[in-house]
């Protein structure tokens, strides 16, 4: 793996190029050239989990933000960031919905050099709870000892959050068994007894409760993980270096999508039935977290620090060199929860 310093130097060089192009462009030029010159590629495949978190990309597509930048963006469903990373690294996708744990693991393990184009989602209360079946005998975190717990992929943000929650009751990962179950299949897995508990997110939290009576045992996003940064829009360092103008165009469009999602809940809610396959009534009842409209190293660093603390990393890791700063003026305002 190349050092963080070398990555940072390359990112700074890219940003300097974009800045010079921005100065050279006039306000009357076409969207494809605005800000960073002619696009190297115009078609971008995005892998995203069909959950609330990824709402901004669907908003950006529906509102024509990518089209205004000269991009044709296709969004395809993936099961999780860990599952999407191989497809990102082999070029199947140019951008993925990557949970921050899997992304940091990929960098530190040498699996691939990837960068954050933008932040995606920040947890709110009960947006990622640990749920149990209605008739479960478990009522508290300490009751999870010996339990089989479903997470969408192993060694990712889910296992990290559950382990942090287990620690509040004096338990560790060795006291439970994690199994990988896609989010849409978790309610049925709980109902059938295939798993004892599930780390689940919206819209499936609301769906599991409404249809099966599943209940929340604990909020995994509280205490040390309150307001935890969950995921980002990730690309490979190589793709960004080869396509700096297209990367900048994607950043501008996705940040507009993040802003729209942050300002208006309905912007995402209205699209959930189509991309998440749920009923409009369920979409109207689900709990939203926050859609960040800026990218802050200090926020994402919380993930790396907790990973080190819980033994996911052998050494401390600094995220800042892997954050690709957006084009000037692309970040609209501070993050907000949709009203």
From TrEMBL:
Coiled coil (residue ranges): none
Keyword Transmembrane helix annotated: no
GO cellular component terms, A-Z: periplasmic space
Gene3D superfamilies listed in its UniProt record: Periplasmic binding protein-like II
Superkingdom of origin: Bacteria
UniProtKB keywords: Signal
Subcellular location as annotated: Periplasm
Signal peptide as annotated in the record: 1-24
Principal location: periplasm
Family: Belongs to the bacterial solute-binding protein SsuA/TauA family.
PANTHER family: ALIPHATIC SULFONATES-BINDING PROTEIN-RELATED, TAURINE-BINDING PERIPLASMIC PROTEIN
The protein, known as: NitT/TauT family transport system substrate-binding protein
Organism: Allonocardiopsis opalescens
